[in-house]
Design goal:
binds 5-O-phosphono-beta-D-ribofuranosylamine, seven-stranded mixed beta sheet, 7 strands, alpha/beta, Rossmann fold
Length: about 190
Amino acid sequence: MKIAVFASGNGSNFQVLAEQFPNNVKFVFSDKPNAFVLKRAEALHIPRISFGLKEFPNKAAYEEEIAQNLETQQIDLIVLAGYMKIIGPTILNKYCGKIINIHPSLLPEFAGSPHAIEDSWQERTGLGVTVHYVDTGVDTGEIIAQRPVPYHDNLEKYEEKLHQIEHELYPEVVQKLIAEFEESGKQSAN
Ligand code: GRF
């Protein structure tokens, strides 16, 4: 199973995935040329692709360029890991059911919030992590796995624990999807 990871920022989730699935992660795409995720990818010798929406006349053209890279690499699964753009129809129509995302709350609580960690911590509800398929809504796709994160009265400590749980849960889900993909490949070969 060939995987592309999309990330806009720090890239800690990208890093654990690239370390655990070095044969599967074919490239990382970032819409932010200065994102730290690109430094992580360089250190791990994972190919990097980076360009911003502003370089294109519209979002469809931007996504068309991304889609061409996905097609060239024959990508089977897109893993969003802190990618701060909504996936539009140009990619979604081609990769429906093949895009997953990680969100730092127990969905549907705090769906669409760019600061779901702080929101859930403040309201003491929805504390946890969700991995889900991406559909046309924002954080509304089918849920694959969820894991609660215990409340801590210190936000930084809570956040630390949440990221630790993300770094366990995301590879577990990817591992399961790789196994299913390989199994279905074997069955269609028979
Ligand atoms: C994670 O908390 C993830 O849940 C959210 O964005 C953050 C990305 O962190 N979607 P990192 O860039 O992987 O460190």
